[in-house]
Automatic annotation (TrEMBL):
Keywords: Membrane, Menaquinone biosynthesis, Transferase, Transmembrane, Transmembrane helix. Pathway: Quinol/quinone metabolism; menaquinone biosynthesis. It is a multi-pass membrane protein. The lineage of its organism: Bacteria, Bacillati, Bacillota, Bacilli, Bacillales. This is Prenyltransferase. The chain crosses the membrane at residues 12-33, 39-56, 97-115, 121-139, 151-172, 178-197, 229-256, 276-301.
Amino acid sequence: MDMLKQFRKASRFGVVPVMLIPVALGALGAFVWNGVFNVWLFLVTLVGAAAAHLFSNMINDLWDYKSGTDIAAKEAVDAVSTNSGFLTNKVWSIRKFAAVTWGLFALAAICGILLAIFSGIWAFVFGALGGLIAYFYVAPPLKFGYRGKGYSEIAILLSFGVLPVMGAYYVQTSHLDMRALLLSLPIGLLTTLILFNHHFLHWQADRQAGKRTLVVVWGEKRALAFSRFLLLLSVLTLILSVVAGALPVYGLLALPAMIPLYQVYGKLKPQNTSHAYLPLMGASVKSAQLSGLIMIVCLFIQGLI
């Protein structure tokens, strides 16, 4: 049990709903639009997606530790560390941490192979693309999460929106549908917003360590404006999903879940301490998860009626 608790903390298991929600949306899309739902394929997709997400968390910690980014965040006076702390605090050795990390990758790969056998090669392609994005987000030679040109935000939109929603839909149907792409955008943008906002917690330490996020490149004022823009895009794409028939009209009930996040922006100044962004992070997570769950319930009801 102690090892299980350590694994949950090391992998940051508590954030895995941001991956499971888009998977559920894609599978429900297949149920609503095509009348098909294979529970076993769905469970394998869930396990594979969860393993891929936890691998992403841990490989991020591994490379950020090696690059000195996490150490800089720990030593900075105003920074709020967002890593697991298992390497910076020497709870686990690098070797043990890496072994668990690559074990999760192997589990995700096995699930991808199984899904490719039963649903088609694109199931593996979607998973492989997600794995490559997760690895090269922080790993050399690409390290596009360090470049500050918007690559990381595009990567998150793909990894936590487009790929899991469309991949889960494909697993159930063995074909693609434009409605799945539309359905992926609001939840993908809300998750992108979570990852974007978390950079505010340690952006000065990132700058010191050479990690050029958009917050580092643009500064707080411009980055906050872009953060608000991402929220607006989430609202607009949700409405577009309803208009295009990817969601029923009562899918608009997901919009009020974003109001608390909008309210937090009004309490922030152009420049803030890192700790002042903790409410923004909390509201981002709650809005994304609640909006996603409401979308799931709406699709489920539509499928039943």
